[in-house]
Amino acid sequence: MATSFPSGDTALPHILISNDDGYLAPGLLALVNAIRPLGRITVIAPEQNHSGASNSLTLSRPLSIHRIAGGERDGFVFINGTPTDCVHIAMTGYLDHRPDLVVSGINQGENMGEDVLYSGTVAAAVEGVMFGVPGIAFSQTDRGWARIDDAAQAAHDIVKQMLSHPMPKHPQQADGIATLLNVNIPNRPYEELKRWRVTRLGNRHHSQPVVVQNNPRGDKIYWIGAAGDAKDASSGTDFHAINEGCISITPMQLDLTDHARQKAMAADGWNRD
To answer: How far apart are CA 146 and CA 139, in angstroms?
Structure first.
């Protein structure tokens, strides 16, 4: 069974940290170091980069768990699976007790608009929520890890806010579905990361075309094209907040039902006996 990093106070909340860039990613290490004072930390992350893995579980083979001994990542646990695998295994038997919070990231690159449907970073937080544990997914908007320690300090502030001011249950969710937050942080100095905005998801134009190349044998190979530019970056969206230099905090939910269309279809005779 897993053990958490010592914090000096067993009364502190237990925080499970994962990511999708892999256990060696600078964003994960920075996040762990920043929020370590806030609780008892357990790190379970993928062995390799799983960007774009979404909520996939590995069902075709068994998974292996390894613990790092020594160095700046001492105690980190890594799994040869996806971000969802990591949190799922933690919740279903690896941990002695379920954590109080799941934190994922810090991702290299933004997760805004439709990105959240593909993101392994978001998926790790979602998996926690599926087990009744609040989840926060952190992403830094620009790639390259510039000012990652500043982003991690901002993430610390948000986690501290979450722990000190637990969110009430949604008034329309009597079963008390746990809170899910998607946070995007600009690559800026910490002093410029004091402005937070609670946002909704914007949306993007269609993705760029695939990039077609030939392999050494002359066969065509295909690289997935870049994400589309922002289509809806209006006031109140995650894109708009980032463009204004603010941190974007988007509350999300797991219910993908289109309730308005459900009612319209029922009224239009789609229900049959």
So the answer is: 12
pLDDT of residue 10: 62
d(CA 253, CA 165): 19
Residues 48-63 have pLDDT tens digits of 999 999 999 999 999 9
Indicate left, alpha or beta for 63 from its phi (over 0: left) and psi (-120 to 50: alpha). Answer: beta
User: With contact defined as beta carbons under 8 Å apart, do 4 and 128 qualify?
Assistant: no
Calculate the alpha carbon distances from 204 to 23, 80, 172, 208, 246 in Å. Answer: 30, 32, 29, 11, 19
For residue 170, the model assigns a pLDDT of 58
Residue type, 254: L
CATH number of the structural domain 14-203+230-267: 3.40.1210.10
Closest CA to 118 of 132, 93, 137, 99: 137
Residue with the two structure tokens 């934190």: 103
From the list 162, 229, 164, 242, the residue with the least C-alpha distance to 197 is 242
Which residues of the chain fall short of a pLDDT of 50? 3, 6-8, 174
At residue 177, the pLDDT reads: 78
**What integer pLDDT is reported at residue 227 of this predicted model?**
86
What ranges do the domains of the chain cover?
A: 14-203+230-267
pLDDT, residue 116, reads: 96
Q: Bridge partners of 15?
A: 41, 101
Give per-residue pLDDT as tens, 153-165: 999 999 999 999 8
Q: What is the rounded distance in angstroms from the CA atom of residue 166 to the CA atom of residue 161?
A: 8
**Which phi-psi region, left, alpha or beta, contains residue 73 (left: φ > 0; alpha: ψ -120 to 50)?**
alpha
